[in-house]
Amino acid sequence: MTLYRQKNLPGRIRPSRFDRLLRPIHSWVWDDPRRRARKLLRFAATEADGGRDLSRAAELTSDGLLRQLYLRHASDERRHAELFRKRGRALIRSLPRATETSFEANWFAPGERGLDELRVDGENEDSLLAFLHLSEKAAAGRFALYQEVLTADPETQGVFDTILRDEVFHMTYTHQQLARVAPRKWTAVLWKARLGRLWKAYLRIAAAVAGLLGTMILLLQYALLLPLFALLAKRYARREPQGWSPARSSTPLRSQY
Ligand SMILES: [Fe+2]
Ligand SMILES: [Fe+2]
Fold first, then answer.
1. Which of 42, 91, 148, 198 has its Cβ near the most Cβ atoms within 10 Å?
2. 204: which residues sit within 8 A by CB, 6+ positions away?
3. pLDDT at position 228
4. Mean pLDDT, the chain, whole residue set
5. Full-model pTM
6. What does the DSSP 8-state code read for residue 106?
7. Are 126 and 185 in contact (CB under 8 A)?
8. Cβ(171)–Cβ(143) under 8 Å?
9. Ligand lying nearest the CA atom of residue 163
10. Cα dist. 155→29, 48, 71, 86, 143 in Å?
């Protein structure tokens, strides 16, 4: 049984065109040390989750080679979680205490699994490998870009450099194993996974746009209708006599009991 070696891996990983387009935003996201620390700690949580999912995948598979690869992958992700956590905590310790800024740019700088959730239980071997391959590939490209924009922080850059080597291995073995377990249909499986990711991205964008529109409509309602009601209430208040007036009904009030 052979595990793929690092020397078989492709050389330089390049960020996707889309991520390159967003490079100024990525630079801005990573520029602030407080935001950088929080992002690293969030990445640590994502990597640890990924490690648990892969341990579960190793438990479920009946394929010996895949089990071994998933276990190694799980241990890599746990190590990445530790590296991110350590660096994130070191950054926080080095910062002066200040008021927290609430904005988190997770849409612009997602972690390894991006914004997708991995569901191991009930997943076919080939679709799981396709999902893993695409998310590892996206992560490798993204981490390469984060590494590029982190020139002002060589220590964090070094963390990404170390992790990136493993991500390239993960991206490569998942593709090779997909071609092994589904030799005739791996391209179709990969396209299906790609379309699934696109669909999920569309749903996320649609939900975000719907949320934004909902907030804007509510604000417009407050801005336009509240002053109108306030004006009407004032007019009625002027017309009505002040204070309590006696009930006009001639029927005496009866007790309910
Ligand atoms: Fe990782
Ligand atoms: Fe990975």
1. 91
2. 115
3. 83
4. 84
5. 0.74
6. T
7. yes
8. no
9. 1
10. 17, 21, 28, 11, 14
